[in-house]
Amino acid sequence: MAYKESNSAFLSWEGTISRKDYAINMLIAVVSLIALYFTNFSVLVPQKFLYDIIVFLVQFLQFILVISILSLVYRRIEDFSRRFTIKIQRIFKYLFYILCLFPIIYIYVLNYLLNIIPIITVILNISSLIAGFLGILFSIIVGFIKSE
């Protein structure tokens, strides 16, 4: 597939995505993520060993859905930023890295590694919370920007 070709795959980082496909795929991913979060698996599997396996698999599926959402936002940025200059395209990508990618990397990786230094953890918790909130707003706004 060519780099600028449009596709609607969930886990693809290359190509672009239209507004309609972005909205549909984002809705599917977010609803699935919320449904997995609110499902009580202890009722479904009463045995402790099977429950632990199910929880691990569900957390892995939640991680895959988060990566899918990130790929959707990235491809949407690729779609509408083609009409701008290279400098503005870089600004949009830096916004993606700071507002969308940093909170996810911090939550899944750095939070566990930097837990021994309390002051850095507090500062990074606050900054990732603010960046995460702004990243959600950014991903909503990205869905409304028209492309070529």
Describe the structure.
The protein is built from 5 helices and no strands. It has 148 residues and is an all-alpha fold. Helix 1 runs antiparallel to helix 3 (48-80). The radius of gyration is 18 Å and the shape is flat. The mean pLDDT is 85.
Summarize the model shown.
This protein is an all-alpha fold and 148 residues long.
Based on the model shown, name its key terms:
5 helices; 148 residues; single chain; mainly alpha; flat
Helical content band: over 70%
Instruction: Give the termini separation.
Output: 20 Å
The assigned structural class equals mainly alpha
Total E-strand runs: 0
Low-confidence stretches are: none
List the helices and strands and how they pair.
Layout lengths: L18 H20 L2 H4 L3 H33 L5 H28 L4 H27 L4
